């Protein structure tokens, strides 16, 4: 392999694929980035077996020559050092030459770098995905849906399936659900698919989806999502992002969500978040995060937390409406703040079915987003 | 104590003094901030015994009423939680009321906070400083001098005196010196003092000076620096910053600095820094940071580093001038980068007195800044 490439394009591709590299890999070749070059362009691949990312740089783009190929070929370069050095090369052009035994020379301006390359034949091949089930989602919607659900997944590796966000689809609707044993976040959207398109039990690691989010473009381009038996492929314009579907059966969470409420509250989201944030600061010092909500006859609520050592925070808030039984209820303020943070609505609706039943938070004007938190059992 | 104060002023003062609070303090009352209020204004004090910071908020400033005092008094409030909650209070006015047993109530908008206060009588008194020796320095110059020297102090607590920056003065010049066993950084400036003003063996913790730097104003205001027997006081407009002088005798470093050079090099600072940065990236993977500099007859230098596992970086650089014996010399690239980073000059002068002798780096046009690093002993 011998070629010259514009540094900017090489660097962007390296930054994208390097997100798949794990520092903890026990397979030495997976600490490298695989480079393949031919007349069409250059393909970079990185993988930690759970995630694989492939990025393609075309030889020419909109009449701009990006790569000048002199000899095609492949090599695997250790990502340590390579990822950083390319970003810091002095000139806008980078020459890459691979010789016998994969010895690689990189030249740019006054710099010459010799790298010990590895045999690309030893690099695992990427899963082949049959395109049986495919949906399209606008990039910014996909980012938002990931943000609104992935924070709620479990971080406990003893139940791996719950560390994933569940993707389910039926009746032309796609739903993402994140859930640990104390809270649940779900977001639904219409998708343009055949009426009989269904997805069930597709759980994708929340951490992986957050990595994907970082390379999703901000512009409103369409992302193809292709579901195979064990893998999901996210297809951006020049990037392929493969991820494994988590093993196991995702629990049925539908029964957690009440169909009607004993008490309903409509309140200004930001004012509630600010008040709970102050109560959280104190509850955090107690390491419990417990905050108490008390509803009053005069259409106000009181948010409070206390610490025997430090003191007490009390917040009085007006509500827009409060109907049903007046409750006293305690919950994890951190979970409530997480839920409020991803609801992009001026007013929110909170539904209660009793002091020991799940609390349901939604935007006031929409049903496509739902946040659930379980209350704490406290002695008043 | 009972008063109402503008949140913005209270918050600024808290942020300043809280820098003196250590999480590791074993004296419970020192985890608090002392508040004293009288007709003149409010004084906040925090201390970890090494550093003490006092901030004064006047009742009125430029005809703006900042504090409305109803009852004077004092209290100590645990800084945990207090520092953060004040920043997040909902209204621009904050009411503070201290009752029996130092029980403190803070009210702002819809929030009411009860805090357990401590007895201010138990708070240690600040050192009294006799103003025997005082200099004045512009705030931005003091910041620069700290930045140019504090990075070079030792982090090894077994020689506490070397964890400090040495302040010395004679012949109308002030000099700051930071030094560990491998490098030295010094910066000199003219000061306006009596001809017989002298300072020696005043070593102030580098970490403390960096904390001071964060609260020094960016504007070019004059800072008073007052030297007492065991303490130095930095006096900003409304802030007093006390720090302890480190115990012990600072070693004489003057003999380290050669009076003449065997080899002299003038080179573009940024180009050299970029080349060493790339070589550093590789040397860092080897955990040695060793970079080699080879001088050539054709007025170029080669910077290189190598790793048996990863490869080699070679950089060719033109120099502006190179006189004397051609050397091959190895050094710690991280130390060289640290030194180059604080030299604000397009061209730098590097002086050598042999492959095993100190390397001296200065701005080409000035002698007030000097950076010294010891070379590595390497084979070949």
TrEMBL record, chains A, B:
Gene Ontology biological process: DNA strand elongation involved in DNA replication
Localisation: Cytoplasm
Subunit architecture: Forms a ring-shaped head-to-tail homodimer around DNA.
Similarity-based family: Belongs to the beta sliding clamp family.
Stretches assigned to the DNA polymerase III beta sliding clamp C-terminal domain: 255-377
Domain of life: Bacteria
PANTHER family attached to this UniProt entry: BETA SLIDING CLAMP, DNA POLYMERASE III SUBUNIT BETA
NCBIfam families: dnan (TIGR00663)
Domain DNA polymerase III beta sliding clamp central: 136-252
Gene behind the chain: dnaN
CDD domains linked to this entry: beta_clamp (cd00140)
Parts of the chain that traverse the membrane: none
GO molecular function, one term: DNA binding
SUPFAM superfamilies referenced in this protein's UniProt entry, alphabetically: DNA clamp
Record carries keyword Lyase: no
GO cellular component: cytoplasm; DNA polymerase III complex
Entry function: Confers DNA tethering and processivity to DNA polymerases and other proteins. Acts as a clamp, forming a ring around DNA (a reaction catalyzed by the clamp-loading complex) which diffuses in an ATP-independent manner freely and bidirectionally along dsDNA. Initially characterized for its ability to contact the catalytic subunit of DNA polymerase III (Pol III), a complex, multichain enzyme responsible for most of the replicative synthesis in bacteria; Pol III exhibits 3'-5' exonuclease proofreading activity.
Domain DNA polymerase III beta sliding clamp N-terminal: 1-127
Protein name, entry field: Beta sliding clamp
Record keyword DNA repair present: no
Entries under Pfam families matching the protein: DNA_pol3_beta, DNA_pol3_beta_2, DNA_pol3_beta_3
């Amino acid at each position: 392999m011998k070629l010259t490439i514009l540094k900017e394009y090489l660097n962007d591709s390296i930054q994208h694929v390097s997100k798949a590299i794990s520092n903890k890999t026990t397979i030495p070749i997976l600490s490298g980035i695989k480079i393949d070059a031919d007349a069409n362009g250059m393909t970079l691949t990185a993988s930690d077996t759970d995630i694989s990312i492939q990025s393609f740089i075309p030889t020419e783009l909109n009449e701009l020559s990006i790569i000048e190929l002199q000899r095609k070929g492949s090599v695997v370069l250790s990502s340590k050092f390579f990822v950083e050095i390319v970003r810091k090369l002095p000139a806008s052009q980078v020459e890459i030459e691979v010789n016998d035994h994969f010895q690689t020379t990189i030249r740019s301006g006054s710099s010459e770098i010799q790298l010990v390359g590895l045999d690309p034949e030893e690099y695992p091949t990427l899963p082949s995905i049959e395109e049986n089930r495919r949906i399209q989602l606008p990039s910014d919607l996909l980012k938002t849906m990931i943000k609104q659900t992935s924070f709620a997944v479990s971080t406990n590796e003893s139940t791996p399936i719950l560390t994933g966000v569940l993707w389910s689809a039926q009746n032309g609707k796609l739903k993402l659900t994140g859930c640990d044993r104390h809270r649940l976040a779900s977001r639904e959207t219409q998708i343009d698919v055949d009426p009989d398109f269904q997805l069930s039990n597709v759980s994708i690691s929340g951490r992986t989806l957050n990595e994907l989010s970082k390379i999703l473009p901000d512009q409103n381009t369409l992302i193809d999502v292709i579901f195979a038996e064990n893998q999901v492929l996210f297809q951006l314009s020049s990037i392929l992002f493969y991820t494994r579907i988590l093993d196991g059966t995702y629990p049925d969470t539908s029964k957690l969500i009440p169909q009607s409420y004993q008490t309903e509250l409509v309140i200004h989201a930001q004012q509630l978040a600010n008040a709970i944030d102050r109560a959280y600061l104190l509850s955090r010092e107690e390491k419990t995060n417990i905050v108490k909500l008390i509803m009053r006859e005069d259409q106000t609520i009181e948010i409070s937390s206390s610490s025997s050592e430090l003191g007490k925070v009390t917040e009085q808030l007006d509500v827009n409406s409060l109907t049903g039984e007046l409750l006293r209820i305690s919950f994890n303020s951190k979970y409530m703040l997480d839920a409020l943070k991803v609801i992009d609505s001026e007013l929110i609706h909170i539904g209660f079915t009793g002091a020991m039943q799940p609390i349901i938070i939604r935007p006031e004007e929409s049903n496509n987003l739902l946040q659930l938190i379980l209350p704490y059992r406290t002695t008043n």
